[in-house]
Amino acid sequence: MSAALPLYITSPSVPTEAELSALLRTALESRRLSNAGPLNHQLKLRLSEMLKVPHLALTSNGTAAIEVVARALEFHGKVITTPFTFPATAAALIWTGATPVFVDVEEDFLTIDPNAVEQAMDESVSGILGVHVYGNPCDVVRLDAISKKHRIRLAYDGAHAFGTTYDNVDISRYGDATTFSFHATKIFTTAEGGAICVNSPELHRKIELLSNFGIESEDSVADIGINAKMSEIHAAFGLANLLHYHDDLEQRREIRKCYDEAFANLKGISTLGDRPGISNRLQYYVIRVRDGKRDSVQSDLKSSGVFARRYFYPLLSDIKAYRQVCPSASNPFPNATRAAAEVLALPLSASMKKEDALRVARIIKTSIT
Ligand code: T4K
């Protein structure tokens, strides 16, 4: 019997060489490689239609997308966010001159707790940056009410939530702006890339401007922007990947179902639930391992060639560099702290087979019993 192949947290969806080269030919023949070329235009159109969103801008990655949004919404002073996230969320705030104020997350969905947001509110808060953790939306209704009450802007880091709908509309229709990541590890990928969705045409224009150095025309630089543009090569990769996107989702759904069944009544393990009203939470499959056994389960998986990841550990509030610039980091975050000690993201990708998921579940069962 041959040894099982290693399984990573993800394996990117890739187009075939023929699919990609057909699209790349446009860029190669025209020698148009960047700066709002025809492939960017096509991808923008396809994604806006698919998500049914009014305004979508493409970016070089999900981190740059947050930075552009922070500038476009004029975040300054304090911005309330969560310590239970990938470093990019808070780093983007700090790089654009704001100070993250960390607050705790909700126990069930691990998204920012609206009660904690209310409690942290003061006059120097200019915005809220929620994170749709693992594709589970924040409590968008309550956060919307809080941001309106305090007259501050509300943005979402939706790096994990591409294609998620809430109450049958795309998740990016909530708040002032939502960012997505199209990194290789994401459900829809352009290798590196991202997007920003907004409802307001004025805000969209500002975002496009800021993503291209603030250049309005040959004669005018209207703002202090940066380079957050997606290249034509990355846009070609995205367009080619869209050919398989729905099949990929189906396969991910199958794997998720398999895991759900395997962990349904397993003592010591709980799975993360979906916030009611959402669809398509297929970016990450996350379990919580109780009784302090998370790290030994991860290590047993690793010994068998299964590379699960502790997204998100450590909490940003426990990282020295963040503690030095975020006074709020020394506050207690009981829900986030417990989650950081228990969560384990298991391999999930469209190239996995049911047998792979069953193998992962078997190792976990043996490890915890
Ligand atoms: N906000 C949130 C909430 C995020 O999670 C992220 C990114 C962002 C913002 C920022 O978006 P981007 O600026 O990245 O667009 C990975 C990703 O690099 C990162 O995009 C992602 N979140 C994060 C959750 O995961 P690492 O350091 O865990 O990646 P790495 O290199 O260890 O890769 C994980 C596994 O994926 C590897 O073991 C194998 C597999 N892999 C990875 C790559 C890059 C492949 O099979 N092929 C590949 O090309 O951060």
Structure description:
This protein is α/β, with parallel strands linked by helices and 369 residues long. It has 13 helices and 17 strands. It has helices spanning 17-30, 38-51, 62-72, 87-95, 114-120, 140-149, 201-210, 232-242, 245-263, 294-303, 320-325, 334-342, 354-368; strands at residues 7-8, 55-59, 78-81, 99-102, 125-131, 153-157, 165-166, 169-170, 177-181, 194-198, 215-217, 220-221, 269-271, 278-279, 285-289, 306-307, 343-346. The strands form five sheets. The chain has a seven-stranded mixed β-sheet with strand order 2-10-9-6-5-3-4, sandwiched between helices. A three-stranded antiparallel β-sheet has the order 8-7-14, with no helix packed on it. A three-stranded antiparallel β-sheet has the order 13-15-17. It is globular, with a radius of gyration of 21 Å. The model has no long low-confidence stretch (mean pLDDT 96). The structure holds ligand T4K. Ligand T4K binds at residues 8-12, 61-63, 85-86, 88-89, 131, 157, 159-160, 181, 183-185, 194, 307, 309, 311.
How do the strands and helices of this protein lay out in sequence?
Layout: E1 7-8, H1 17-30, H2 38-51, E2 55-59, H3 62-72, E3 78-81, H4 87-95, E4 99-102, H5 114-120, E5 125-131, H6 140-149, E6 153-157, E7 165-166, E8 169-170, E9 177-181, E10 194-198, H7 201-210, E11 215-217, E12 220-221, H8 232-242, H9 245-263, E13 269-271, E14 278-279, E15 285-289, H10 294-303, E16 306-307, H11 320-325, H12 334-342, E17 343-346, H13 354-368
Parallel strand pairs: 1-16, 3-4, 3-5, 5-6, 6-9
Antiparallel strand pairs: 2-10, 7-8, 7-14, 9-10, 11-12, 13-15, 15-17
Helix pairs in contact: 1-8, 2-8, 3-4, 3-7, 9-13, 10-13
The structure holds ligand T4K.
